[in-house]
Amino acid sequence: MRKRILVVIAGIFYYSGLVALARWLTRRAGPRVVILNYHSATGGDFLRHMRYLRRHYRIMHVEAALEELYATRKDSTHNSGNRTALVVTLDDGYLDNYTYAKEVAHDLCTPISIYLIPGYIESGARFWWLEGKSMARRAQVSDVTIAGRPFSHLDNPEERGTLAQFIDDRARFASSVAEREEFLASAQAALSLSPLPHEKDRDDAMLPVNWEQVGAMDEGGWVSFGAHTMHHPILSYLTDAAEMRQEISECRQVLEQKLGHAVRTFAYPVGQAQHIGLDVVQAVRDAGYDWALTTTYGINTPQTDPMLLKRIEADVDQHWLVVAAEAAGLWGFISRLRWLPFIRKNFTNASRQKGM
């Protein structure tokens, strides 16, 4: 129901001309860069999104768009007739970024930028934020205690959902990568998991890419790459500052060694203000990155802090009309209108359900 309401609202915006007006106002306001934040590419409408965006924006690699944006600090001339620059980013490096997003980018001649996690590329393991649901689904015990928390009647879907959330929370708030991995290993052992299915399904697309696939995308020219830490911890939760700095700096070193060229951009895992902090920002700056991306909502201007660039969350399961309104900045406008609490509530809830 919520998705239908959002599509109806987005349709009103689009067909009334409000989306077109918002695009025009953004263009007239001066240099801007819209950065959309996707994760996986399949299971939705990514192709239709890209077709719409290509018609109305200049889709650019993140590096080219940001170079252009910050060059305007020195050169104040701005051609308001140009379409606004837009960057499509995909965080984490899911396999479907290679099998599908790369093909869409090539066929439509629309650059994309992917943020990689070398530790997962090397291990080929399932990303930690997928483990909760996977373990709960595959548990072969009815009663179990995990990290001191008892669970019973795991044949009940509601109890399995509680277990999945508990696993996700413990992994998310871990104070080190080692703590997170030890907890996940202990949970796997306690639950006596059934084997993963061998059939090809959506789970396969949610695995990480490998280095050979990264190399092929890099050579194709339509994909650029940025860093997303070595193992995707939430950086502000790490208690060891040395580990936090290593997660940031080593990621760039490994990617540059594998790719054979500079890696200039970084994306903070999860990426809201509470997941970053001033010491994390400084570590990113010290590691030599030129720009860093958050998931804070907004459109970037030449005055935006290059270490705290804003992004607009997008998802392949959204209708293209919703993406059109988001890219134009209209959802942010709605969320600030106190006299539309119902719409603001639905928009906020939808945003919270998106990925890492």
Written description of the protein model:
With 356 residues, this protein is of the alpha/beta class. The protein has two domains: 265 residues, Glycoside hydrolase/deacetylase (TIM Barrel), CATH 3.20.20; 64 residues. 49% of the residues lie in helices and 11% in strands. It has 16 helices and ten strands. Strands 1, 2, 3, 4, 7 and 10 form a six-stranded parallel beta sheet that branches. Helix 3 packs parallel to helix 5. The longest helix is centred in the C-terminal third of the chain and has 19 residues. It is globular and about 65 Å long. The C terminus is likely disordered.
Please render the helix and strand layout as text.
Blueprint: H1 2-15, H2 18-28, E1 33-38, H3 46-56, E2 58-59, H4 62-71, E3 85-92, H5 95-108, E4 112-116, H6 118-123, H7 131-138, E5 144-146, E6 149-151, H8 157-172, H9 177-191, H10 202-205, H11 211-220, E7 223-227, H12 241-259, E8 265-267, H13 278-286, E9 291-293, E10 312-313, H14 320-327, H15 330-335, H16 341-352
Helix pairs in contact: 1-14, 1-16, 3-5, 3-14, 7-8, 7-9, 8-9, 12-13
Short description:
This protein is α/β, with parallel strands linked by helices and 356 residues long. It has helices at residues 2-15, 18-28, 46-56, 62-71, 95-108, 118-123, 131-138, 157-172, 177-191, 202-205, 211-220, 241-259, 278-286, 320-327, 330-335, 341-352, and strands spanning 33-38, 58-59, 85-92, 112-116, 144-146, 149-151, 223-227, 265-267, 291-293, 312-313.
